[in-house]
Amino acid sequence: ILGVKYMWPVLIHNGYGDAAYAAVTKTAFPSFGYWIKRGATTLREQWDGRASQNHQMFGGVDEYFYKYLAGIWSPTDEKTSRGYKHIYIQPYIPQSLKSAEASLNTITGMIESNWKQDADQLQLKVVIPANSDATVAIPILNFKNLTVNEKGKKVWENSAFVAGDEGVTNGQIDNGLVTFTVGSGTYEFTLSGK
Predict the structure, then answer these.
(1) DSSP, res 93
(2) Which of 12, 36, 41, 43 is the one with CA 20 to 30 A from 144?
(3) Are 103 and 57 spatial neighbours (Cβ–Cβ below 8 Å)?
């Protein structure tokens, strides 16, 4: 029970994001999917469903959905400031999942992250509330000769940031991510390449 909370960051940060996704979607015993198949609407204390029927012991799976799939990091992480004045968005995208979305109502307003992928492109829409800014780190996946557009305007091409899109102030590539700094507002990034 104690190790499940740490399973998500260990898998994700060591390059096993697809294994984390498989663990969440598994339906054989023992698993979260097994509970759902048997009609559970709350977290159980034990995998076999005995004991408490509403228990926080396995609640770390929530972190996987918000922080890793949707990419909305919390102020307890070093990349997001207290009160969500600076927000950090970095979704981890499993190969076999086609889309994910989440929103989080904070003291500064609603944060949203919504992505979908197919063989030709990855689209990420983020909403950053007023009086906040954000770092948006997007996985490059398997794209070569990467081009990134934000609402149709190029912000990344020929391995370089393209200035001129209001609200997107810089961009860089590091550790398999293309990262942009943005102000408050709604941004729709599209990654494509060969």
Answers:
(1) -
(2) 12
(3) no
